[in-house]
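hey so i finally got around to running the thing on that chain from the lab meeting. sorry it took forever, my laptop kept dying and i had to restart like 3 times. anyway pasting the input first so we r on the same page abt which one it is
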Amino acid sequence: MVKKLTTKQWQNMIILSLVIGVIPGIVLLKFAPKAIQALSGSIPESAKAESARDTYVICLFALFFIVIYVLSLIDHLTHSVGKKVKNYLTANPWVTMEQLDSDFEAAETIESVWIGRRWTFCGTMNAVPVENDKIVLVYSEYWRSKRFELYYLCLGLLDGTVVKTGVTEKSLPKFMELYGRYPHILVGNNERYIQMFKNDRNALLDIKYRSSHV
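ok and heres what got predicted. didnt touch it at all, straight out
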């Protein structure tokens, strides 16, 4: 289980490195000398076609993405799947690795998420694994810019925390369908439920969670 999650995590990291690591790095190598020349007071030949201002903006964007990539790489190294699983087992000594492996092998897989009977496994989530019994609300979030649109699967937990991971838009209905099979979990982007989860969780728990645990 740990090996498969780690492999999937690094596969995603390789794709991420191409998008926000390698490509911005190449862009920065190309435009940084021009920006330095402009800052020093000299005017590069390319200034005839490109303004110094445009060069600065391109370099800043490239540097921004490189910083994000470095921070993501550090997070992957310091918060590995193995460490997350070890922390979970330490906090829950009655759970064994064999139980986790068994549930993982029988889980339904959507992209980088394995949804088992008792646990949800995803290497990019802050917690690995996540106890399905402690999930009270499943919804999605998105971040949009002029060129990019990112979607996130969000699992609202009993203690008020939210764990999330990036997914594709087309997979969201399948996630909602799978989690909707659990009698205690509310699913969907119901703004009322989301606000209740954030501001009045006890009222949210009365809707479905507590009645299913009687």
